[in-house]
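User: I'm writing a tutorial on reading structure tokens. Could you give me a worked example: one chain, its sequence, then its tokens, then a sentence or two explaining what the tokens reveal?
Assistant: Sure. Here is the example chain.
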Amino acid sequence: MQYSALVGDQAFEFSLPDTEGTVRRLAEFHQLGPMVLLFVPTASGWASRFQFWNFLRHYDAFVQLATEVVVVAGDGSPQLRRLQAALGLPFVFLADPPSRVAERYSTGAGAATLLLDRQGIIRFRRNENWFRRTPAHRLLPIAHQLTTPLAVQ
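And here are its predicted structure tokens:
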């Protein structure tokens, strides 16, 4: 599969509603620090829930690195709000019901994990499937590198 957003590329800007219906822009997240962008076809599937649990286990470490976790799901805002409340998930959820943003990122089956730096450059990308998901702990060293200032010589 040919990806339209590769490691080293500038991430495509987009705007999507969050669980409260507020339209949020991609740039408002990555300008604050690195961000994990999780694309899932539906947030209610067991594979997606497993991925959320995986990131929840390491969420404090991401917070310490000023790295936001943002989920882009093919569900509507009301469904995402209910799921977020029921599972107690602290992540930002963005609704992409027609999956247009996911298509633009060429997520294949719909699931992908990306890590963006403060400038919105893709530093990690992996398309996922139902049995292969990126462990959250694999992204922590990359996020750490992106938040550690370069040594002054």
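What the tokens reveal: The CA atoms of residues 36 and 115 lie 5 Å apart. The chain has a mean pLDDT of 89.
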